[in-house]
Amino acid sequence: MLQNNSMLAQLKQQIRQTTPRAEGVIKATDKGFGFLETDDGESYFVPPPAMKQVLHGDRVEAVIHENGDKKSVEPEKLIEAGLDRFVARVQKREGRLAVVPDHPSIKNVIKARIKNSLDENSIADGDWVVARLVRHPLKADDRAFFAQIDELVAKSDNPAVPWRVTLARHALEQECPDAGSEWPLHDEGLTREDLTSTPFFTIDGEKTRDMDDALHVAIRAEGGWRLSVAIADPTAYVEEGHAADLEARVRAFTVYLPGQNVTMLPEQLADDLCSLWENQDRPALACTLDINADGSLGEYRFFAANVKSHAKLVYDNVSDWIEGQGDWAPADDIAEQLSALRDLTEARTAWRNEHALVFKDRPDYVFDLDAAGNVLAVRTEERRIANRMIEESMIVANACCADFLANNIGHGIFNVHRAFEPEKAEAAQEFLAGQEIVVDREALTELARYTELKRALESRDDAWLDARLRRFQGFTMMSAQPGPHFGLGLAAYATWTSPIRKYGDMVNHRLIKLVLKGEQAPAEATQQLTEQLTERRRLNRMAERDVKDWLYVRYLTPAAQNQDTFEAEVMAINRGGMRVRLLENGATAFVPAPLMHSDRSKVVIDDKEGRIQIEGEERYKLGDPLRVVLTEAREETRSLVAKPAV
User: Fold this and answer.
1) 212 part of the active site
2) Do residues 31 and 75 share a domain?
3) Do 249 and 380 reside in the same domain of the chain?
4) One of 127, 204, 403, 624 is an active-site residue; which one?
5) pLDDT digits (tens, 9 = 90+) for 557-604
């Protein structure tokens, strides 16, 4: 008997070793079946019965079954669950508790229990919660999916659902940090220059409260300008290691959402004591720098100061005045500076166009909301001259910070962006060669060579080429060591101009102050901190996008009901269709392949090349303009659906 058992086990092992298998990630569809997508690009059909054992996003090992020329897979082993902590809606039916994950590709009703510390009576059908998946059918000893509810996020009728649910999904804080009681100004051993009589000014949005930066501009007798940049100084109130500092370190950034900000620092500091309000004396960290007539940077000097803003200006008012529009006008001493700052900006932009890189102008889309969070309108805000004036001032000030830290300390918090990581540079080179653009590898990996290539590519004004090339490019990372910023075309870039809302800027403030005092700098920032800053910035941007998507669906529901037509551009193409941006309001909509032609077989999508053929002719490609009809607004998935206009 034992011998038979041993032989049986050996036989099973042999069968297992010879049975074809595949590893990949489950992609669910809304029709019950799914696909297993492998890392090498293979795709296997997963029939509906097998899909009941897995969830969208699960990484599994599956057995391959062949039936003639058709292949399917049966998931056998869970490698990594696609769902762990998730936001869901509660379902209560006849005393039975379940949750439905808030995910466009997961519709499973999962049985659930409530965490012991929660009151079950406080959670009702339809409420929003945070849950964890605690059982999975492919795990040993688990026979079904099961979840635990850990947190109530919002009641079903709470008007703040879009904000609360989004912040919970990304595990971001719901409220501003506790203000504490008192915030005395600390004696840091710095000599502060008294600049309170110097007519600094701020330019911000009309409703901005956390004003980080104030400027003063003077025309130099020898030509060019002297720009003084005064930056709010929260580290004068918040010592390293203080509870507020530790909390800011965790949050890393202020989260800016339509209609709501969740500050990094307590509001008493962010919006009051540190903010550079008009006619209020404030401690500041400052930099005076010389800009030559050709826009190049001359000498600069960092120092501590006390400043007072003499004017709180608004972007649109300043732009209107410079462009000769509207009735608003600044005081004479401010007017002279604004004219000088305009000239400085044009010179600096021209210099960066020739020696570095300048981002293409894209409009911002601003939501006007009522008290209940309903969207009244979506306004388009172009990057006008006043916006560019502040942007150029901050870029040159941050370039000075990078140079100062690199030369005096050798480390800090730097924004490092390499256009192409080494592993993608070769693929990008091959892609360009396929477009008859022959470049050396160094043109993709060396800053000076890359800026030349980038300017040459932009002169082509080829939206498809730009979009395709972006697929090979990397993202900006936070680094303790100086490194190039290919996006700006600068050898190094370190921000210090937004310490109220960026923890990395607080770190750089403290380092600059140590140099000013002649004290020894601490060890460089840990990899854990730089990775935390990078990840938090990513999550904040995703949260902003998700709230906007929710609000867009609510705002554009009447337009979908009316089948309104919009001008759009193709921003992404995948196997199922294309994603477009509506130019009027910035919303994104998906155009599925079946809505491009009544016969789906006549639609051929090349998602790798970013092109779509219909009836054998190329009809759409990345970057193309087109007109679309909005057909659906689905709040349950926060998605808009459109079709090409006839």
Assistant:
1) yes
2) yes
3) yes
4) 204
5) 999 999 999 999 999 999 899 999 999 999 999 999 999 999 999 999
